[in-house]
């Protein structure tokens, strides 16, 4: 089965999620929507370039930004940030890395390209 078909089938049957643990509590993370991803990224804007995602995330140092970003990926808002802040710095970074690993850049770029093509079709007048 190709990767696209796998992603679609997992989405339909509801098996496209990850479980992360922070402060001894389990949280379910589903593939992020654009809204959730935007909210999370707004708290991670100070990260520095590094060799891999984990090092990029660690570049902020100990910060409440991790718990806020993770809350966005879990619930779509900051409502869990105080609870997640009770976990360790490493737990929050590991959970963020796990949640962000659900985004496949190839699939995302194809979706963006398709959305752009559809909008161009809708916006161009017929001659």
- Major sheet: arrangement of strands: 1-2
Oligomer: single chain
Write the H/E string, N to C: HEEHHHHHH
* Number of H- or I-type helical stretches: 7
Could you describe the largest sheet, including whether it forms a barrel? Answer: 2 strands, antiparallel
The Cα radius of gyration reads: 17 Å
Q: Low-confidence runs (pLDDT<50, min 5 residues)? A: none
Strand content: 5-15%
Reconstruct the topology from this structure.
Elements: H1 3-13, E1 18-22, E2 25-29, H2 34-43, H3 53-58, H4 65-75, H5 81-85, H6 89-100, H7 105-123
Antiparallel strand pairs: 1-2
Helix pairs in contact: 2-4, 4-6
Notes on the protein architecture:
This protein has 127 residues and is mainly α. Helices cover 58% and strands 8% of the residues. The chain contains seven helices and two strands, in the order H-E-E-H-H-H-H-H-H. The chain has a two-stranded antiparallel sheet with strand order 1-2. A hairpin with a 2-residue loop joins strand 1 (18-22) and strand 2 (25-29). Helix 2 (34-43) packs antiparallel against helix 4.
List its salient traits.
7 helices; mainly alpha; single chain; 127 residues; two-stranded antiparallel sheet
Q: TL;DR of this structure?
A:
Helix content is 58%, strand content 8%. The protein is mainly alpha-helical and 127 residues long. Helix 2 (34-43) packs antiparallel against helix 4 and helix 4 packs across helix 6 (89-100).
């Amino acid at each position: 089965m190709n990767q696209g078909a796998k992603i679609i089938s997992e989405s339909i049957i509801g098996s496209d999620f990850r479980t992360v643990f922070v402060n001894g509590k389990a949280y379910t993370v589903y593939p992020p929507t654009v809204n959730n991803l935007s909210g999370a990224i707004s708290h991670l804007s100070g990260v520095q370039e590094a060799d891999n995602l984990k090092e990029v995330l660690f570049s902020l140092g100990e910060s409440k930004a991790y718990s806020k970003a993770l809350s966005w990926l879990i619930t779509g808002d900051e409502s869990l940030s105080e609870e997640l802040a009770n976990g360790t710095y490493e737990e929050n970074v590991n959970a963020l890395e796990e949640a962000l690993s659900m985004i496949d850049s190839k699939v995302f770029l194809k979706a963006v390209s398709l959305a752009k093509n559809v909008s161009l079709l809708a916006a161009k007048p017929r001659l």
